[in-house]
Amino acid sequence: MRSRVRKIANFFAFNLLFFALYLNFIHKDQQSTGTVERTIKPTAAAFSGTVLVPNPEKYLVQKQ
Q1: What share of the chain is helix, strand, coil (3-state, %, to 5)?
Q2: Distance of CA 15 to the CA centre of its chain
Q3: How far apart are CA 7 and CA 1, in angstroms?
Q4: What is the pLDDT of residues 5-36, one digit of tens each?
Q5: In degrees, to the nearest 5, what angle opens at C-alpha 60 toward C-alphas 57 and 63?
Q6: Can you tell me whether residue 3 is helix, strand or coil?
Q7: Which distant-in-sequence residues (6+ apart) come within 8 Å of 45 by Cβ?
Q8: How far apart (Å, rounded) are the C-alpha atoms in residues 18 and 16?
Q9: Backbone φ/ψ region at 50: left (φ over 0), alpha (ψ -120 to 50), beta
Q10: Which end of the chain is flanked by fewer CB atoms within 10 Å, N or C?
Q11: Of 3, 4, 2, 6, whose CA–CA distance to 14 is shortest?
């Protein structure tokens, strides 16, 4: 009786494993190979590093 339960449990475990592998690799690859045009918009970063100041003369170091 235990061997029969183990055989059934192993059968379902392997089926679940192969179904997960199918969903992870094969099904995902079929969706990504479709011809979908993607428009990439350049997004501004939160901190781009360049900021305009109202009085630049005040902040510039002048060599003498």
Answers
A1: 55, 0, 45
A2: 27
A3: 10
A4: 999 999 999 999 999 888 888 766 655 555 55
A5: 115
A6: helix
A7: none
A8: 6
A9: beta
A10: C
A11: 6
